Structure to design on (728 residues):
């Protein structure tokens, strides 16, 4: 029997720019069957959380551009479970909005907030960790994050430094947080790993509605005030108009920067469930099947000659000949082709910007 | 006033496999504006020869698959000027067929036979050489070819060894031929160049109908007999049925191997008019405009980062990002993409075969 106070907010408004052109503005990666196993990432995410919370307690927050995609891919959702943002304002406003909607329904809610587009290898471990985390946050007023034991000095992730001397009574994997850090340079990332005190920030948060509301009041009072004005309107026909109005004036800020880095009640649950943010082509490559030359190929008509360690992602029926490439990304989607060294994959975001500036929004 | 005995046969049945996928079975390179100057190669070839022969004396021989393309691109041709082959049988049957058609109209014809898909830089020089060649072949019973002064040990061309001590009286650029050689290995090609006795075989021939007919009788009597049976049918409604019938039994053989290499009356006109067979991606690259990193790019939405000496040929509106390639071919046409080192371009023909075997004829 699932706990009816347990809620889940799945954030699905991002565009996955570093996986462009596979992921793009019109179909971001959460809506794609990235791993080719028959389900999109958001469908898998929903099913994972359906093992933890009642299905009717799972909310998707996304940009209104993606309303149709969301409805198509998750037809079991009611209208009220699809929270539509009129503009992108990063994670703090997104979470504040979901909080007020859930609070109006159940002020005793305990909520897990998670991205819609990550990979979880060991689902049973994941479910266990989240259930324990929700139990913890229903009993203590902490802001609990998930920290992943790092396996490489990845510069694409944020890091969480934790205080080994301060594990939570009752759960030896939960620690007080010392610092949150943004994506580091490589040397910094290496020293993080060497110190043994840092975990990858998986962007998964757990808290009670009461605790997170207090944090907003303290650290982001302007945003809290905006959303508070809507009390009485959430989950009613007037919600949309109100939201369209306040999003215009709401500033853009992440929950990490706006609250987590400043709060003194941040805790981290150190976990290992085989996690990847699937944020870059290498991250995808790492999870794919390889041929004997270590190429990971998606596409039915791809032929490789003297090629190794490439990640190739082409439309199913396109004929592709690749000769003489080692450690490259070759990907096409929506009439956009990219050929790029894997080692330069952090530049992909810049290429997206360049293409948008030079050729127009329709290509990104 | 053009000489009404001068005729031209333009051979347009090839597929340009080494320029695949730009050139392919459905639209071979002669029907493409390969150099992006607004005219297809066959249109340019036709116009060049229209400066030499009366337009009504210019014949196109092509596969019947390309009848529509030929009519569309050369609307001034009458039906009888488009000679359609039911099967590919290489150049000797193609030439025998054209000979008999022209002989039935004008037994005093002097003919220039030329490919439809080559590049000529200096058209005035070319016109002058062909006019002089036709004059020579109308007066003497020789089989005259054009030999191009080589500028590199290109292994994609056939070579003609000529006898410097035997220039033709009256034209110091025309010599007796010692040998014709097929495409050589690189070391052989280098020694050809060093010797100073070899020219590139441009595949352009001139002869009187009488002289070439005698050569067919002598060296390819089986083929001559087949086509001779049709005398009385050429240029009549019965021609097509007859041709469809004999092509089924006619063997495949080139004019070079079948006649030129064996004849003792072969002559070569050494010429320099800026010639390329446009046979490979490098040949095309050599003629294209380059950017400051020596990339030759066709496509309106191509962005290059750390790329040099590449030949890029993409559909006009496709967005393409290329990072970190040096000296590569990147080309797409008809839903086929190739990425290949320029140094491996002679393999392209093999890739075409592999794709046809593995994925089907529709992709080549």
């Amino acid at each position: 029997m699932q706990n009816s106070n347990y809620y889940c907010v799945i954030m699905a408004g991002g565009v996955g720019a570093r996986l462009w052109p596979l992921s793009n503005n019109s179909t971001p990666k959460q809506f794609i069957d990235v791993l080719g196993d028959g389900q999109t990432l958001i469908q898998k995410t929903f099913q994972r959380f359906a093992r933890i919370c009642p299905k009717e307690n799972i909310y998707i927050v996304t940009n209104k551009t993606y309303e149709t995609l969301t409805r198509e891919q998750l037809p079991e959702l009611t209208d009220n479970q699809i929270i539509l943002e009129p503009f992108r304002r990063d994670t703090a406003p997104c979470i504040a909005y979901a909080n007020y909607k859930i609070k109006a329904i159940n002020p005793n809610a305990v909520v897990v907030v998670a991205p819609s587009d990550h990979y979880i290898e060991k689902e049973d471990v994941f479910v266990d960790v989240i259930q324990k985390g929700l139990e913890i946050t229903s009993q203590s007023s902490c802001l609990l994050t998930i920290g992943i034991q790092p396996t490489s000095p990845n510069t694409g992730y944020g890091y969480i430094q934790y205080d080994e001397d301060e594990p939570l009574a009752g759960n030896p994997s939960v620690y007080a947080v010392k610092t949150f850090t943004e994506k580091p340079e490589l040397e910094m990332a290496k020293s993080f790993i060497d110190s043994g005190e840092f975990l990858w920030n998986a962007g998964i948060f757990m808290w009670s509605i009461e605790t997170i509301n207090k944090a907003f009041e303290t650290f982001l009072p302007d945003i809290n005030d905006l959303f508070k004005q809507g009390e009485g309107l959430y989950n009613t026909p007037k919600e949309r108009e109100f939201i369209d109005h306040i999003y215009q004036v709401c500033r853009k800020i992440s929950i990490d920067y706006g609250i987590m880095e400043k709060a003194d009640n941040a805790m981290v649950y150190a976990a290992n469930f085989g996690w990847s943010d699937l944020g870059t082509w290498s991250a995808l490559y790492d999870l794919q099947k390889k041929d004997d030359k270590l190429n990971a190929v998606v596409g039915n008509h791809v032929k490789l000659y003297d090629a190794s360690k490439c990640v190739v992602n082409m439309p199913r029926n396109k004929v592709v000949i690749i000769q003489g490439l080692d450690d490259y990304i070759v990907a096409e989607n929506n009439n956009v082709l990219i050929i790029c060294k894997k080692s330069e994959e952090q530049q992909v975001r810049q290429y997206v910007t360049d293409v948008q500036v030079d050729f127009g929004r329709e290509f990104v």
Notes: The longest strand of chain B covers residues 171-181.
